[in-house]
Design the sequence.
């Protein structure tokens, strides 16, 4: 746990949430200060669909690394891949997810992973919530985020889920990993 001597308590923790996709990867950075969550930034990385597969993955990796450099998160959380009816699409999504995991890992961040149903249940109360319901709850929890796109709202939802998981356990990801 990071302590801030001037505050006599834990320092705020920045959390990067990622919703990986090959066409659109949403990202969101929030701050957890005690029990208070606040919005830092969010966006979407959208490599050109006409670019070769390897270049698209490289762009995802590089842009996530740039977000990490710009916003200096302490921890990261990534949505897990869901398996769909098309095995080729699932495999490609897995590649995008790998880029989303490796970039924060390379920066020295521990990376938590959450199933989409866990994220939806944490925000909306049901694992079967739709994107509009998730986006609505993100706006309620982080009003400064405004009307984020669906991908960015999903990424912010992953970050919120991780923040709440940290609060419930009372430990940071680094403390969990060490102990």
Sequence:
């Amino acid at each position: 746990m990071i302590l801030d001597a001037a505050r006599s308590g834990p320092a705020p923790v920045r959390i990067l949430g990622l919703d990986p996709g090959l066409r659109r990867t949403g990202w969101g950075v929030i701050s957890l200060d005690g029990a208070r969550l606040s919005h830092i930034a969010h966006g979407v990385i959208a490599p050109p669909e006409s670019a070769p597969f390897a270049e698209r993955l490289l762009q995802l990796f590089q842009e996530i690394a740039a977000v990490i450099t710009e916003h200096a998160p302490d921890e990261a959380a990534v949505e897990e891949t869901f398996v769909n009816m098309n095995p080729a699409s699932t495999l490609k999504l897995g590649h995008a997810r790998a880029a989303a995991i490796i970039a924060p890992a390379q920066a020295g961040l521990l990376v938590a992973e959450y199933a989409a149903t866990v994220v939806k249940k944490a925000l909306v109360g049901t694992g079967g919530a739709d994107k509009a319901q998730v986006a609505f709850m993100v706006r309620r929890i982080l009003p400064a985020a405004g009307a984020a796109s669906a991908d960015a709202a999903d990424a912010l939802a992953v970050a919120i889920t991780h923040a709440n998981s940290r609060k419930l356990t009372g430990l940071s990801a680094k403390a969990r990993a060490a102990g």
